[in-house]
Each structure stands twice: as C-alpha cells, then as structure tokens.
Design brief:
single chain; about 625 residues; mainly beta; five-stranded mixed sheet; about 15% helix
Length: about 625
Amino acid sequence: MVQNNSWGIDYQIDTLKSDISSNGWTNDYGVAQKWHSSGYTANAASATAYITALNNFQDHGVIVYALSNTSSYSEADFQAALPELFSLLNEAWITAVNVEITGSLGSETYTRRSAPCGSTGAYCLGGDGFQVSGAKGAQNGTSSYWETNYSGTSFVAPQISGAVALLAEAFPTHTPAQLTDRLLASADNTFFNHDAVVTFGNGVKHGYDDEFGHGILDIYAALNPITSSSDNRSMSLYTGNSLNDNSSFQLGNSRILTSSSFGDSLQRGLISEIGYTYDDLDAGFKYNLNSHVNLSTKSAPSVNLSKELNDLSEPVNNSLQSKSSINLNEGISIELSSLPVQRFFESNNFSSTNLENFDTPYLDSNDGGVSIGSAFNLSNARLLVSATLPIELSNGQKLGSKKSLISSLEFGESQSQSVTLMAGLSQENDNLLGSIGANAFSLNGATSSSTFSAIKAQKNFFNNLSLTGIATLANTNMTSPSNSMVDSASDVKSSSIALVADMRNISNDDQLSLFINQPNRVDDGIVAIKTSSLADSNRTIQQTVKSIDLDSSSRQFNYGVSYRKDLNENLAFSLKHIITTNLNHNRDSNRLHSSYIGMGYKDLKLGIATSPDGSSIESELSYVITL
C-alpha cells in the first residue's frame, strides 16, 4: 500500500547529477558511489536492484520519501529525488517537505524547516513536522515514553503515508498512481505563488513551486470529490459499463421530473437505492438515487378571477337543457383531440369544475395533430371512433404529441340521463405519463403505450338537479430510453375520479355547484432503474436493473362549491371556494384554499380572489362600454 522512507544521505540531486556527468558514470553507478562513500556497501548492480525493487513496489503501493532536514539546501537530496535519475519511478512517488505552520486560523505563517522540494516540486507534498511531541519506547536501555520538540521530515513522511492508507480504504479500486494524484491535487497551495502547474486529468490542474511543492497535505479535501470546476454538481454519472466510454453525464444536470400523476412514488421507491458518481480523478462516491427525482410543482386548482367576472355578464340559465357544441359530422380535424375525447370531456352543465381540465396525461382534450373520426347512430346508442396522429408543418412546428385509437359508446341523452363508455390506446414518445427526464435520466427514445377505459354518467333530477360522475383507469408500459439510467416501466396503473352536482333555480335565478375529484394518480406499477457498482481497477462498471415499486404517500382531493345569484336583471353576485388536500398526491402538502367573491352591476364588475397558497390576493374592477 505505502512504503515510508524517513532516511537518506545529505547530498543534493543537482550535485550528484554534475558528478555523474563530469565522470561519465551511469546513474546506477553514481548512486552506488555516493552510498559507498557514505559508508554503505554498494555497487552499480545493487543500486540497479534497489531501483528495480522500488519500481516493482509501485505496482501496488506508493513510495513516500522524506527530504533532507538541511534547510540551507537549495535542492532536494538525491535519494528523495531518485525519479529525476530514473523516470520509471515517476508513477507513484511523493517527497515530503517540512513546513512549520504558525498563527491563528486564517492568518497563518508558513516557514520551510527542511530542504526545499526543488526539482521534485511536481510530486512534493508538505506537512508540519516541526517541534512534534509524541509517545516513544525504550532507547539504549532507558525508558522514554514521551518526547517533546522533535522536528524533521521524518515526522512529515508518516503523515503522508497514513493519508495514503486512508485513501486506499476510501477508494479501494484506486491504483497507487491515482492515490498519489489525489493527495497532490487536493493539497493547500493557497499560501505561495506557483511556478508551474500539473494537469492530472479531466481538466484538474494544481499549481506548485520548487520550495513548497504542491503545498500542505489536506486529507479532508483528498477524501472529497475533486473536480476541475470545484463544483460537485459537475461530477459524472455513467450509463454504460465502463469509465472509458462516452456515456457520461453531469450529476447536477441529471434529473427526472415526475408529473403530478406519480406523486412522490418514484422518490419514495428510490430512497434506499445507492448509486455511484465519479469525480474528475475517477474516484467513486456513494449517493442516494432519489436525489435525482424532482417532484411535480403543479399548483393547486385556483379561481380564475377574470373568467368569473366575465361570466357575470350573462344571465343565469335556469335550464339544465343544453346543446353540444361539437360537430359530429366533421371527419377530419386539425389541432383538436379525437372526437370521442372531445365529447367525453364536454360539460353540458354549469359547474364549478371544468371537465376539460380533468388531468389525464394519456388523454388530452387540447392535444393537437390530425384527427380522423366518425360517428355512427345505432338503435339505442351512438358509436364514435377516431384516430389521431401528430404532424410536423413545413416550418418545423409540431402539432400534437400522441398517437391514439379511441372509440366510445354514448347511451341516452344528456338532457335527462346518459352513460358514455370510452376505451382506447394512446402512444407517446420521450415521456411517461407526463414525466420527463434529462441527461443520465433522459427518457428520449422511449415509447409509452397506455390502454385505458373511462366512464361518464349524467343524470338530471326534478328539472333543476344534475349529477355527473366520471372515472378513468389506465395501464401504461414504457420501452427503454436511449443511453439512460431509466431502463423501462411496466404495468403502471393509474386512475382518476370526479363527482359534480349542479342545482338551478333554488331560490329563483340562481345556481349552486358542488364537486369533488381525485386527479389522475399512479396506484401501482414498476419503473426499472439501473444501479451501478463501484468501477473496478479496470474501470469496469457492473450495471444492475432494479424494479422500483410505485406507491405514493397519499391522494390529492379537490373539493369545491360555487354559487351564483341574479338579484335582478342588472345586479348579480357570485362566490366560489376550492379546497385541495395532499397536493400532487403528497402527504407533506398543506391544505390549500382558493376563494372568490364578485359582483356585477350592469357593465361594472368588481371581484376579489385569493391564491391557494395564501401568498397573494387578487382584485379586479372592470367596466365595459358598448358603442
């Protein structure tokens, strides 16, 4: 793992190089000659064997060498600087310089207390080994359990060696060279001017000089992500099987934005799932996959003040009888949804809820494209059949997003009682029930197919009371997106329900509406997500597909009441109140309210409304002049 060297011969590397050059020695012989002259038994062969042993050790460990303690030196000593003579030792080598650090935090003073890094600056690291106190054992027969005020690079090198051990534990697949790079690239080099820069890879650069090297060892920084931008959001996610491929995406930009139908189900399902993200030096860090999920921010239903005041311009309609505005004879339509969908969501009665806004992602009453449909009158029912396709105009504008094949059967008449049954298939690309993804969680290339059925029942009572019920049920499957951590989705079941009561002419020229609905909600199903292992020393990633069960924490319900009264032909007032619980099917949401009250006198309208979150109060005064 690491070889600590707190020994050496005080002889500068530049002087030895000069000796080798002037005498015509080989580097091996020059090193051996200096050892021999210092009292060691050595020759060129033994020097070569030592260099070979050091090189072999770098296959599985880092070599840390203490610099000379002679602070008057102008260069590193030759043993610490062996890579300057033998380039094969450059792989995982760190020289240790002693730097005394004094002063208070933020006002430190740095003083070199050893030989400088010199020509080893590119792989030199500092620490404070000046006047160190610590435990000690017996020496020369005398017990000495505590020593004070000891100094030297021999106290710095073990700090660096210990840091290597910590990094090896934190990043078990790192090579010795990678461990060396992390320590050098994360050192504190803010207290001196840099002579040169080392580029470690993926844009990570770190400055150094010939006195302090890369600066002071910072193990905390080395254990944390190292990126070229100093922004952890730029760390990489890999959707493929190797750190060498091009399937990397930035962590901070990889998101899946869930629609309100999913509530918090996907976030809850991923809460215990772990993934790995990589910094620019290829270190893997665990993180929770649910951090990629952005929950829907869809607002609660609120009162449209302008619309409410505009409705006061028309007198109360005391009759429940109404006529459909949809032309059943139109075979082809553009920028309209299919004929069965238009009819299904058409509201025949005054109410405080607009069925056109009934939120079902696979059924959009305002979806464009080209629709081809037809209506057939049967003996006791009406059959509507339609197919829709998205189109792209010559200017590049796209109309519509879904392909669909839908049919419905209408029984009865809306003036008394009616039942509509609708079923079909809807297909859409690059999303899942309105949810979209980005970067590593992109849904591009996926196709979502929904089979659905729906029922709407209307019944009029006593000529002044109408009840409308509507319910939908769908099953959705999604194919695999291209190059994404999202693998697929299967058997995603969703449902919605609403009940509306309209009453007319309760006390002459008035209308009362009550409603309750649950917007579309995913009740069950599976989204398959890729989870990756930590890349091994060969940079290989093992991807495992896990099935995430979808289960939201709650159900959203909207409750509403509205009342309109014409006091005479010139004076009318109206009011409305909407309550929303568990917004977007999330139990952490507060109960929300939106209220309105308005009055109209001839062409003068005045109203006031509150937003669901209570953050604003809106008022409007309007006057219409007829010419």
